[in-house]
Amino acid sequence: APTDIQQYGGSRLTNAIGRVIMRTLGQPLEYVADPITFAATTPDGKAGSFIAPTGPFELGGSPGFVKLPPAALDDDHRAALWRESERLTGVRYEIL
User: Fold this and answer.
1) Closest residue by Cα to residue 54 from 72, 44, 66, 40
2) Phi, psi at 22, each rounded to 5°
3) Residue 80 and which of 19, 70, 95, 96 are 20 to 30 A apart at CA?
4) Who's near 66: CB < 8 A, 6+ residues apart?
5) How many angstroms separate the CA atoms of 81 and 17, rounded?
6) Other beta carbons less than 10 A from residue 62's beta carbon
């Protein structure tokens, strides 16, 4: 979605490129919650499925099932993300 987040976190050049990409291909703000609503209401959802906009680069378009990014299937990446999330939030969870 074309939010102000593209203005922070990178160099001036990458921030500017991010803004242009999101304005050109990004989902309008009024449609940002559509994938979440779709995921919460579809009877076809299954564990391990991935729902996102189905347009180019998954930046816009109608919500639907898309291919899970390979990094999401990488156990080392998942464990590192979990540890970093715990560190940043100060909350520890036990994985069952």
Assistant:
1) 66
2) -70, -35
3) 19
4) 50, 51, 52, 54, 58
5) 26
6) 11
Instruction: Name every residue whose Cβ is closer than 8 Å to that of residue 26 and which is 6 or more positions away in sequence.
Output: 1, 2, 59, 60
Q: How far apart are CA 18 and CA 12, in angstroms?
A: 10
Phi, psi torsion values for 95, nearest 5 degrees: -85, 125
Strand-pair partners of 63: 53
**Can you say whether residue 41 is alpha, beta or left, with left for phi > 0 and alpha for psi between -120 and 50 degrees?**
alpha
Tell me which H or E stretch contains 80. Answer: helix 75-89
Burial of 52 (0-12, 13-18, 19+ CB in 10 A): buried
pLDDT of 81-94, one tens digit each?
A: 989 999 999 998 87
Determine the residue type at 21.
I
In the three-class reduction of DSSP (H, G, I as helix; E, B as strand; rest coil), residue 65 is classed as strand
